[in-house]
Amino acid sequence: MLEQLKEEVFQANLELPRQGLIKYTWGNVSAMDRESGLFVIKPSGVSYETMKASDMVVVDLDGNVVEGEMRPSSDTPTHAVLYKHYSEIGGIVHTHSTWATIWAQAGLDVPVMGTTHADTFYGSIPCARFLTQEEIDRGYEAATGNVIIETFEQRGIDIMAVPGVLLKGHGPFTWGNDAKSAVMNSVVLDEVSKMNLFARDLNHFAEELPQGILDKHYLRKHGKDAYYGQK
Amino acid sequence: MLEQLKEEVFQANLELPRQGLIKYTWGNVSAMDRESGLFVIKPSGVSYETMKASDMVVVDLDGNVVEGEMRPSSDTPTHAVLYKHYSEIGGIVHTHSTWATIWAQAGLDVPVMGTTHADTFYGSIPCARFLTQEEIDRGYEAATGNVIIETFEQRGIDIMAVPGVLLKGHGPFTWGNDAKSAVMNSVVLDEVSKMNLFARDLNHFAEELPQGILDKHYLRKHGKDAYYGQK
Amino acid sequence: MLEQLKEEVFQANLELPRQGLIKYTWGNVSAMDRESGLFVIKPSGVSYETMKASDMVVVDLDGNVVEGEMRPSSDTPTHAVLYKHYSEIGGIVHTHSTWATIWAQAGLDVPVMGTTHADTFYGSIPCARFLTQEEIDRGYEAATGNVIIETFEQRGIDIMAVPGVLLKGHGPFTWGNDAKSAVMNSVVLDEVSKMNLFARDLNHFAEELPQGILDKHYLRKHGKDAYYGQK
Amino acid sequence: MLEQLKEEVFQANLELPRQGLIKYTWGNVSAMDRESGLFVIKPSGVSYETMKASDMVVVDLDGNVVEGEMRPSSDTPTHAVLYKHYSEIGGIVHTHSTWATIWAQAGLDVPVMGTTHADTFYGSIPCARFLTQEEIDRGYEAATGNVIIETFEQRGIDIMAVPGVLLKGHGPFTWGNDAKSAVMNSVVLDEVSKMNLFARDLNHFAEELPQGILDKHYLRKHGKDAYYGQK
Question: What dotted CATH number matches B3-221?
């Protein structure tokens, strides 16, 4: 069942330690198959050294396991809520990558301070609020998905133009068309989190990128007039 | 004698440089065999490149060598004091890992600022006081174990819920059910030390994690209602 | 066509990830053949893992592709403008390397604070201004080349004595006699950016290097009286 | 001639990039043979990838090449001055390692803030003054050696108890009984430079290590009552 997608999700999970985004099992990647309405996700707490593609778990949009002998990631309900609400999302990544997590712990949005950011994220990366005790009690992981939706809707942010979020006191989620691009967005988010922290440290009055340069960099890589990469 | 435990302790020691926690021989791991009342520890100052499992030294709870041709780690009395006082501890690690040592040198407890911390440590990681001259003179390494006990008892901290401590001006000790989990706790401690330093640097007013989220993260991984990982 | 130069440019591009200067495809190296008036540059957005020397693109000084089946780097017009204006330049590198980009985002020149800097750059590395909206609209990449020329001419800096620049809010360009030395200059720029940031952080009153030591270090490696390296 | 010492010096030079202390050829290691009054040093500006043990150059205490087809390191006169003045020194290392160089650029002594420092250096690591223009003109590299001697003599520091120095605006020199221990001292100096910078950053009021703990840590590893390591 969904063997190719399992392989993609497996490979995308392996990319996390290779890119220095996680230690041990502190991360999870999933990918969606819109045709069947099912998604594939990493099992919970399994060592990356022994994990196999066939260990990936198939889950429906209510978070029920459809195939697989292992428990899916404990964050599965967050992934399910996002796939259900946003039909454009094809892959999701959660990590505790160092520099993005630092911004999450600081409780701050990551502002657009450079073109490295603008090449991938068309605006600040928002930091979602803490969950309330009631939300935690009712179902922490699903509530995490809901607070992401709330953040993007209240602020009117296009989910695919800014494919990432920080959860306050926790860490980042990123997404994309597929598992691979979602991982790439996590790499970019961590790197710009590092750059922006030290740029602000070096010059407290450092300006944000002018809108014209943000437009130029984002739009030369994304959308119908893009001219970056091979056709 | 205790051949399997020697192999475990040897492997756990090798994990220290692999995880970037030590340079040269600046660390030591031990593990306890409760049945015999003996523990196994790394020899002192031996290069990790030439060290073998059979070089591990067997020691009793008074710190006397029971088997082995090499001198045990100079920190052996600290390990002995902790194993003797806390029957729950199965493995102990000492390093001078960069970021935890920075907090130790700053003389500060590591506060709970995120879920990376909460997943492993159920509260702040305490920084123990400097030893007095009299304690140093009477036996530095044993006194180090005693000041750890004093710190946890005076503050009423559960040793297994917060499996680590900073020694002021020195560096961290961590422990766990076995050598492997003690090493993992050292990795987590170093990483949260790094994250928390820069989160505070980025936002001097960054809040500590709310109690409800600390409870949720710690308890979904630990205790009878845990649902993280495979059963 | 220009097969040896393609190989040099290919190898210089591979050196970028090896030196930790780039992630994914965020960088490009080119090299000039003054005899034919053509230069060779990396194709746009191609993975470094699958890229071959024969994928390098040959371009003329107006930025037209002369040979190659792939699109050249989207930054090709910047390279063309620089090669056209400065006949001394033989190789050019663009990256978003972490520490140089941090200074670019901070909008500050990198001052000469040590001999590591003085060994390669004979003065501060200037940070060019933001492009105006009109410049962006008329041709962003060519305008980027022009603002580099403007910066060096207005300040009267010798392009080969200070072989690098920061683009505000963007990142560094470096150059040299050939592709290899241009890469080396990128490595030095990133390292001195890191050192100078933390030196200033540690001591806000840290002095710049005295002119006599700057002269000594630069001139013992460069110019007719150099005595560093083998003859 | 001195074939074994050449091999030791060659291996010690290779250890510099492995320990992350240098990029390219920015470092040099030498070692002294007291019997012949000659020392062996790395050639100047030779790539570590192609360098061979037989490329090492034999030099006398006035800095004259006695054997070898390549030019010795441009810092050779500094090494010669130190070997001539201090008969205890058996090996010398110069690098521009990141964190030690940051303290050198900040122009500050590295204070003893932890036991990682105390295990190797029995006191602050001094930062020598800038050279005067006259000193630079008369012979920069020999003057560098002389300012190191001046620093240790004026402050009354034992050269073997504090086996390292920072040159203001430049970087560190370390030494030891042989090339290998001199390299190890460079590793320790860089690591404590990093730790102490961030400890001070985290807590501006962080205390220096009490004298009693400094004594304990230094003396359990050095001198006649040492009990660290194997006998």
Answer: 3.40.225.10
